[in-house]
Write a structure and sequence with these properties.
- This protein is mainly alpha-helical.
- It has a domain of 101 residues: 2-Layer Sandwich (Tetrahydropterin Synthase, Chain A).
- The chain contains eight helices and three strands, in the order H-H-H-H-E-E-H-H-H-H-E.
- The chain has a three-stranded antiparallel β-sheet, with helices on one face.
- Helix 6 packs across helix 8.
- It is elongated and about 165 Å long.
């Protein structure tokens, strides 16, 4: 009980001390800033009139400040870029001017010196050539022509060969040069030389007797006897065949001698023989061509 009584006695003294401190603080504020109390009274009046205060968005303000700062930085960067470009243009302009005024004259001077040196050397070589004998001059010209020819030859070889793959040295058919091409069915065509309206131009060749090669079904000494009809493309070639009959018979004997008995005994062998004989005789004829060869007599001796 004694302690509670003491606390009650001390609380009024404490309140009095606080009031005195507040009064001293107000007096100090009035002395330092006389208008401070007036501002407080105005705020109290605004609060009393229930005026609405607008809340401030701190985040929005910070974001706007950042944007302003970014724009300022970009603007500053653009200024630096413009300054840099201006300096670069000035440097390039200076370099170009220096090159035109200083380097080009030096370059022209060097080129002139090279040309003069080349002309001097060329004159010396020409004077040496003039002092050569006639034989030496001819040899020199031949060597130069040969060197130029070899250079052109090797250059063309490395470029793709003397005759390129796309270039054809010979014309195989007039179809390659024709402006238009027409195609017909073989069934609708008639062989010109086998047509009944065409003169057959046939000539008979005397008998050809020749030894042929042995084969599986032949004896040790097989032989063959043949007579032929030759169909030419003109009457002139028939006259030539008649005049050169002995030569043609010898030619046929040499060609038939390469065939075997079994080969000539077959249908395919007979057809092959006529083709071989036709190719051989056409290589020696000069007045025309033999179109077909027919058998008049065909005898094989086993």
């Amino acid at each position: 009980m004694a302690n509670s009584t003491e606390n009650q006695d001390q609380s009024p003294d404490k309140e009095q001390g606080d009031e005195e401190s507040l009064k001293k603080l107000e007096e100090a504020i009035k002395e330092s800033d006389p208008g401070f109390q007036k501002d407080l009274n105005e705020l109290a009046e605004i609060a009393a009139e229930n005026h609405n205060f607008e809340l401030v968005d701190i985040d929005k303000i910070i974001e706007e400040e950042k944007q302003r700062s970014l724009k300022a930085r970009i603007k500053k960067l653009m200024v630096w870029i413009n300054v840099g470009l201006s300096k670069l243009v000035q440097y390039v302009k200076w370099k170009l001017t220096y090159f035109l005024k200083e380097e080009i004259p030096k370059l022209i001077k060097k080129i002139q010196e090279k040309i003069n040196y080349f002309v001097t050397v060329l004159k010396e070589q020409i004077s040496k050539i003039k002092s050569l004998s006639k034989t030496q001059k001819i040899v020199l010209v031949v060597l130069l022509i040969g060197l130029g020819t070899l250079t052109a030859y090797f250059f063309k070889m490395f470029k793709g060969g003397i005759i390129s793959k796309e270039e054809k040295p010979f014309i195989n058919s007039l179809e390659e040069l024709s402006e238009k091409k027409y195609f017909y069915s073989k069934e609708d065509l008639e062989d010109f030389y086998s047509s009944p309206r065409f003169n057959q131009n046939l000539v008979s060749l005397r008998r050809v007797v020749v030894n042929i090669k042995r084969s599986k079904n032949s004896s040790s000494n097989p032989m063959g006897a043949f007579e032929f009809f030759l169909q030419g493309n003109s009457s002139e070639v028939l006259v030539e065949v008649s005049d050169r009959e002995s030569e043609i018979v010898d030619l046929f004997q040499n060609e038939i001698r390469d065939f075997s008995y079994d080969e000539l005994d077959s249908v395919e062998g007979k057809a092959k023989l006529t083709e071989v004989l036709k190719m051989a005789i056409n290589q020696i004829l000069v007045r025309g061509k033999i179109n077909k060869i027919y058998f008049k007599t065909f005898v094989l001796k086993n």
